[in-house]
User: Fold this.
Amino acid sequence: MFLSDSHQPTLLTPRHYLDGNVTEREIERGFIPGWHLVGVSDEFPVDGGFRTISILGRDIILWRRGDRFVCFLNVCSHRFCALTAAVKGRFLERLRCQYHGWEYDESGQTRKIPDAPAFRPLEQGRLGLVEYPVATVGDLVFVSFHPAPETIESFLGEAHSICAERCGGDWEHVWSWEPTCDGNWKLAMEITLEGYHTVAAHEGTLGRFPLPREEAMTHLFQDDSHTGLMVGFSDSDHPEISRTSRLIRRLGRTPEYVYHHQHAFPHFGVIASDAYAIAQAIYPVGPDRHVNLYRMFVYRGHRPSWRGRLLYPGHAAGLRGFWERVFAEDRAVTSEHHRGMSSTVLPNGGLMSRREERIIHFQAYVLGISSDAVETAGSKPRV
Assistant:
């Protein structure tokens, strides 16, 4: 069921996608207060394992300490060198700066300064690392750059329960991908908020499946920063659905026949079906580039039959390959969408169908965090 009774104009102008001042305001007001997906716990298989990543202009180091994770700015407090240039590795007891060997414990406090007498007078513990809050949901690991962020449950909304259930446990992490892509980050977000493009843009993948009937779909606008989609289906809708359902039963799960897609603005989304779950986060790198971070989980079964155990590896590999192609197609279209937006002359247009109405909900959110950075156009969504 769609919530609008007619098509609607877009709320954002091309300038919203092209102006660097708008991107800066969006980062400041929308991204910084939120939570950011940075990885999965099995990417840190041993105590002391670490991973470095750059998000929103901040280079961070995520470090496993026993069963928990800590996160610091990857910058030494001595003379501001990056602590490490490694993408991943292991620090057993302390983080150690690659330049002069300063060492820090899991609270970020300075624990060893080579030739310490040369720094007198210096109070012990005066200089430490910048620490950021960390939260885990299922096996997903999130970081916030706000000193007192809202709870991760509040930020994720309805996506929280899906991530907690299907991103860990009986669901195996099978794929990670973090491409840097051309195009404004909002275009990458918008393509995830509608399925109208699938027939043309995904002709060989998602386009094999017919567009869902309106009566099979439920659009949800939970509040200003959360939206959802549920699609009901059955074995009779497509032979591949029937084959997957049989396998899911052999893996020990009764199919629900519901496709979920939940979004937490500005940049997080999770897709989930009976067979797989995919968490996605989108990070701007200026007005014309973004990073797409994906983590995919496949249901491997609680008490699978011998047929289920035998078929699962090929099933998981097939799903991974399928969605890798889908997201590569999204990436190509987003780049071309940005190129069209950048044209010095544009036709009349800027129109959203009822099937695309969740984009209007997202654009209304964007206006709320960037309205004083650029003049806006359009009207509020009629839903």
About this structure: The chain is about 25% helix and 30% strand. Residues 375-383 have pLDDT under 50 and may be disordered. The radius of gyration is 23 Å. Residues 8-33+157-370 form a domain with the Naphthalene 1,2-dioxygenase Alpha Subunit; Chain A, domain 1 fold (CATH 3.90.380.10).
